[in-house]
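Supplementary Methods. Inverse-folding protocol.

Structures were first reduced to a discrete structure-token string of length 248. This string, shown here, constituted the complete conditioning input.
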């Protein structure tokens, strides 16, 4: 994995950090959630270019020039999904369909880009009481599960539970169980156009989950799987053939 040279962008709305909500977020994530995720990735991809972008940046930091050079985009959002400009969402969608990898994290399940690509509400059950989460590997043969212990123990985490209103995933890699008895499809993949998508739910603004080494490794594995740096970035063209195109 360390030999892979990729252009990776970690996107975060960064609203919780700006509001200092919760009051402990600055202590847990002094460089923001995006900074913690990027720092974790640098341990696995030391030769790659890893940058961050936020909602407050011009064009949310996701200009055409940035995206055309990006192999993998990671997306974290929670309370400002509606503030993401539609033209930026359309731009990201076009690049995913053309082959850019997308990793969607935690409450990014409600992000405009995720619901648009999946075509469902992406709603789920939730409860935030700081419960223990166990992340169980159910497809150990998948590259994203390589080297991952099962279960990953997360001492405190927001509960996400079924039903998770998503299409049937291409791969179900991880299932989580919670103290209250709920289960959740916490690690799933999809393909859209030429692009690969990985959704991974553990990680919240109230808990230091993104500092856990096994969580960092799952995210790094996900980046490696969705990345397709050799794919020519274009969308399929559809046209009507001229009459007489076929002769018996």
């Amino acid at each position: 994995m360390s030999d892979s040279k990729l252009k990776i962008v970690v996107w975060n709305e960064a609203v919780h950090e700006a509001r200092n909500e919760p009051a402990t977020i600055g202590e847990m994530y002094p460089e923001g959630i995006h900074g913690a995720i990027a720092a974790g990735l640098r341990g696995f991809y030391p030769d790659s270019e890893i940058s961050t972008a936020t909602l407050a940046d011009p064009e949310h930091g996701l200009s055409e020039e940035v995206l055309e050079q990006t192999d993998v985009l990671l997306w974290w959002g929670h309370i400002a999904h509606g503030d993401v400009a539609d033209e930026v969402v359309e731009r990201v969608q076009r690049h995913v369909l053309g082959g850019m990898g997308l990793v969607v994290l935690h409450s990014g399940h409600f992000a405009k880009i995720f619901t648009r690509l999946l075509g469902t509400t992406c709603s789920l059950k939730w409860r935030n009481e700081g419960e223990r989460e166990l992340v169980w590997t159910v497809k150990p043969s998948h590259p994203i599960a390589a080297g991952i212990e099962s279960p990953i123990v997360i001492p405190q985490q927001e509960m996400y539970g079924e039903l998770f209103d998503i299409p049937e995933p291409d791969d179900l890699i991880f299932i989580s169980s919670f103290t209250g008895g709920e289960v959740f499809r916490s690690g799933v993949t999809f393909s859209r156009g030429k692009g690969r998508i990985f959704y991974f739910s553990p990680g919240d603004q109230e808990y230091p989950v993104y500092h856990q080494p096994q969580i960092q490794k799952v995210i790094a594995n996900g980046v490696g799987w969705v990345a397709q740096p050799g794919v020519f970035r274009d969308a399929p063209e559809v046209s009507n053939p001229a009459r007489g195109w076929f002769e018996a």
